[in-house]
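Pasting two entries for a bug report.
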Amino acid sequence: MLLGPWWVSHLLLILMRPASSSEECAESTGSQEMPRTRRTKDGRTFVFDPCTHSWRLQEEKEAEQSTADVQLALPWSQFNVSFEGEFTVAGAPILLGEDPARRNSDTQQHADTGNSIWDGAVALAKALERAPWLVKDKEVLELGAGRGLAGLAAAALSARRTVLTDLAYCLK
């Protein structure tokens, strides 16, 4: 296969271009953005350098400063809903009853996360309500259903068959 003269000249321009310094790169990429970071299992933190397109180990002082303001999870629920008849999907109330009693931490499995109704399940149930064609006359499988809100919403929206699965402690 022959390369056209435009392709060869373009390739030569790329190869002969002088490498820019890291200061120039930081100025051109806008150093105001939050850097991409990854933390490994052993606790080390790596930062992505867009200039060199590589990851570098972050110094301990840098890591302490950058993670001090980061919040990893919301400590509260975004949706304040009751599942004793007030929450409906397509006009049908979703009845889940009261939250189950929390077990002692010594007897919990996976922190008993399956006993919670997560914000994502509430959002998914309402999103399906706005787009019922996604589940109508279809088979739905919810993995890790927990209390089953999303699966129950799919069933209320005329899914042909709905199967909810989770760990044994959630099925009681």
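Entry 2 (this is the one that rendered wrong in the viewer):
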Amino acid sequence: VQTFFKRANRTPQPTRLRKSITPGTVLIVLSGRFRGRRVVFIKQLDSGLLLVTGPYKVNGVPLRRVNQAYVIPTSTKVSLDGVDASDITDAFFARSKQQAATKDNQLFETEAQLSDEEKAKIKAKRDRQAKFDAALIKNIGKVDMLK
């Protein structure tokens, strides 16, 4: 069989962000645990997902990845002065590998034992969230409709 046309392999392109979603835009989450909550969009991650936060101190929504299909952008914008999200990537949200427990231990242990490394990672995430909240809450107070 002779082929005349060679199809070029397409490399996956990053997801294009909707025009109405810009850093600092207040979004409404439509699905999941935090549906109906208003969140602040921070940036788009390499995976195409949106990095958003409540802030956690205001409405309980932590730093989180959300698909843009499941949010509605509003016209309200919040300044992101003092918010540094450059070091947050998809790896920040990677789950740690759980140790395979033996069957006997699974029957009697209800809680998974966390290693010191995992505890340090959780503490770092909490500190990161607190830093984000402090900077964002200051900026939210400057917006008239969000006081």
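Dev reply: Rendering is fixed now. As a check, the viewer should reflect this: The chain is about 25% helix and 20% strand.
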